[in-house]
C-alpha cells in the first residue's frame, strides 16, 4: 500500500506499507532508508543492527525504528530453517528510493 500525504514543510510525502520475507538464513546487505522506517515482525525472528548499536533479535509483535539515512548494518533472518516475515512502514519524500546502498 502506498498513500500520498499532505505537504509537510513544503515537501511532498508518501506513506507506504510493504510485507517482506527473508527465506531461512536470508539477509540483506547493509543499507540506508531515506525516510522514517518502522519494522514490525509478523512471523519468525529478525536480527537487526542500526548504526553502531548492538545486534537485537525481534520476534512476532515486536518492532523497531530506523531514523532517515542511519546505517542498517545488519538485517537477517535469525533462523536457518524457517522464514521471517515482517511489515515495513515508511514515511518518506515522494519520489525517493526506499533503500539506498550503505556507502
What do these coordinates show?
This protein has 103 residues and is mostly beta strands. Helix content is 0%, strand content 57%. The protein has no helices and ten strands. The chain has strands at residues 2-8, 11-22, 31-32, 36-43, 46-50, 56-58, 63-66, 72-77, 84-93, 100-101. The model has no long low-confidence stretch (mean pLDDT 94).
Keywords:
103 residues, mainly beta, Jelly Rolls, five-stranded antiparallel sheet, three-stranded antiparallel sheet, 57% strand
The helix content is under 10%
Superfamily (CATH H level) name: Jelly Rolls
Number of strands: 10
Q: State the CATH architecture.
A: Sandwich
CATH topology (level 3) name: Jelly Rolls
Taken together, the total number of domains comes to 1
The CATH first-level class comes to Mainly Beta
Strand content: over 45%
Give the mean pLDDT. Answer: 94
* Strand line-up across the major sheet: 1-2-9-4-7
Distance between the amino and carboxyl termini: 29 Å
Q: Which segments are poorly predicted (pLDDT under 50) over 5 or more consecutive residues?
A: none
Q: What value does the Rg take, in angstroms?
A: 14 Å
Q: Give me the number of helical elements.
A: 0
Shape: globular
Largest sheet: 5 strands, antiparallel
Order of helices and strands: EEEEEEEEEE
Amino acid at each position: 500500500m502506498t498513500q500520498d500525504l499532505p505537504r509537510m514543510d513544503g515537501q511532498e510525502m508518501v506513506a507506504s506499507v510493504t510485507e517482506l520475507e527473508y527465506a531461512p538464513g536470508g539477509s540483506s546487505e547493509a543499507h540506508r532508508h531515506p525516510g522514517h522506517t518502522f519494522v514490525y515482525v509478523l512471523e519468525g525472528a529478525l536480527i537487526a543492527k542500526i548504526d553502531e548499536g548492538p545486534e537485537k533479535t525481534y520476534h512476532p509483535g515486536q518492532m523497531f525504528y530506523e531514523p532517515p539515512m542511519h546505517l542498517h548494518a545488519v538485517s537477517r533472518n535469525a533462523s536457518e530453517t524457517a522464514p521471517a516475515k515482517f511489515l515495513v512502514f515508511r514515511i518518506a519524500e515522494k519520489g525517493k528510493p526506499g533503500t539506498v546502498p550503505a556507502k
